[in-house]
């Protein structure tokens, strides 16, 4: 499945959410990559994975819920740490295989207590640790 | 493999690029998700996939090269369309399974000629087409 059938629709036209969710292109494990971006600063915070149930829960509760591939269970971001992600908006890409979450991240998004997960930055033939835990 | 062994390093410390590349956590197809973000506006443009060879080519040439899962070949972004992505910076995440590319995108990033791929936006129980082709 994919959203290709809908890509020629015009700006402002609408589809039913259920129809879009039914046409997402999940992987063999039923998962779709989800990018979390801080809505006001534009920082890309992290990449994680969602299934249809976690997408629906996130839309219903306004708190981001992923599927944890390592723990094989739902992962309500910040449930234990308090570093919650409130949903601002959710968008799907042209292929229906990626989600962009605009969020309001409370505190660090990364399990290392850094604000975002992308702290290994390439500089020439080196990689520099680019940020410190908060 | 993963970058977990390095996550406690301090800000400003360095690793050899080869060591980091050898420890990335690719999927069974040898691929890693790569997010492209416009470096100056913060727009998240697209998600695609890279393997080690495309990572190295991107760093050497300064032009972003992905691996196309649908065509099963290297995909030098903009090679046919002219909508090239020039690399500004490359970072890896804490798990070593995602890349953040800061790029300078010439024209539309999406194959639909929209600036970015995330034009299916959820609004209540509908999904709205959020942008028009350029």
TrEMBL record, chains A, B:
The cofactor named in the record is:
Zn(2+); Mg(2+)
Q: What keywords were assigned to this record?
A: Amino-acid biosynthesis, Cytoplasm, Histidine biosynthesis, Hydrolase, Magnesium, Metal-binding, Zinc
Write down the chemical reaction(s) this protein catalyses: 1-(5-phospho-beta-D-ribosyl)-5'-AMP + H2O = 1-(5-phospho-beta-D-ribosyl)-5-[(5-phospho-beta-D-ribosylamino)methylideneamino]imidazole-4-carboxamide
Chief location category: cytoplasm
Q: Where does the protein end up?
A: Cytoplasm
For this protein, the Enzyme Commission number is: 3.5.4.19
List the molecular function annotations (GO) for this entry.
phosphoribosyl-AMP cyclohydrolase activity
Paste the cofactor note: Binds 1 zinc ion per subunit.
Q: Does the keyword Cell membrane apply?
A: no
Q: Which domain of life is it from?
A: Bacteria
Pfam families associated with the record:
PRA-CH
Could you say which residues bind Mg(2+) here?
93, 95, 97
The pathway that the record names for this protein is: Amino-acid biosynthesis; L-histidine biosynthesis; L-histidine from 5-phospho-alpha-D-ribose 1-diphosphate: step 3/9
Give the Phosphoribosyl-AMP cyclohydrolase domain ranges.
46-119
Task: Summarize subunit and interaction data from the UniProt record for this chain.
Answer: Homodimer.
Stated role? Catalyzes the hydrolysis of the adenine ring of phosphoribosyl-AMP.
In which family does this protein belong, per the annotation? Belongs to the PRA-CH family.
* Cited NCBIfam families: PRK00051.1
Output the PANTHER family linked to this UniProt entry: HISTIDINE BIOSYNTHESIS BIFUNCTIONAL PROTEIN, HISTIDINE BIOSYNTHESIS BIFUNCTIONAL PROTEIN HIS7
Q: Any idea what this protein is called?
A: Phosphoribosyl-AMP cyclohydrolase
Please report the organism this UniProt entry assigns to the protein: Marinomonas arenicola
């Amino acid at each position: 499945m994919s959203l290709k059938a809908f890509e020629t629709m015009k700006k402002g036209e609408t589809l039913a959410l259920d129809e879009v969710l039914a046409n997402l292109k999940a992987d063999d494990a039923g998962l779709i990559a989800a990018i979390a971006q801080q809505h006001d600063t534009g920082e890309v915070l992290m990449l994680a994975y969602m299934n249809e149930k976690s997408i629906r829960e996130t839309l219903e509760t306004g708190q981001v819920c992923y599927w944890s591939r390592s723990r094989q269970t739902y992962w309500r971001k910040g449930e234990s740490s308090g570093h919650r992600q409130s949903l601002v908006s959710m968008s799907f890409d042209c292929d229906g295989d990626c989600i962009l979450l605009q969020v309001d991240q409370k505190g660090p998004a990364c399990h290392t207590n850094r604000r975002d997960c992308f702290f290994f930055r390439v500089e020439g033939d080196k990689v520099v640790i680019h940020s410190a835990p908060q």
